[in-house]
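Running co-folding for zinc ion.
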Amino acid sequence: MKYSITILIMFLFVFSTSYANHGEIIKDTRSNEEWARILTTDQYEILRNDGTEPSYSSPLNDEKRQGVFACAACGLALFDSNTKYDSKTGWPSFWQPIKGHIETKTDWKLFYPRTEYHCARCGSHQGHIFEDGPPEHGGKRYCNNGLALNFIPEHEKKKER
Ligand SMILES: [Zn+2]
């Protein structure tokens, strides 16, 4: 009896750790009415209405500390500061997102197609992907709205754990 309980506990332990490491994102399905209560008007326009902030309007353009850039709506970490670079476009720019944390769709709002990307958890719009990124890192530019992101400095990340 004791033996079978030990086996059961071991099984549960292995099962729970492998489940936790699976990393699947559970969707945040809050309605636009709920987001409107949480977000500022400007944030809502970008995140939920695919808006774009004016270039050079975000203080995150000049953010150079170590840390992560998280979705301003649901808080999912989308970019590591190690992948941020100065694209001289006036929008916070990255050459690579955190794997699996963004999804893309084709945007036909202008007269040519662009690749839109959004948070994989809550679906909030972040920006567009362009092909003029740094060639040494694959050539992609993730052009992000600063208002759609919250920066979490490295030391605060550690405090949270
Ligand atoms: Zn999100």
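Result summary
The CA atoms of residues 153 and 159 lie 10 Å apart.
The two ends are 38 Å apart (CA to CA).
Job closed.
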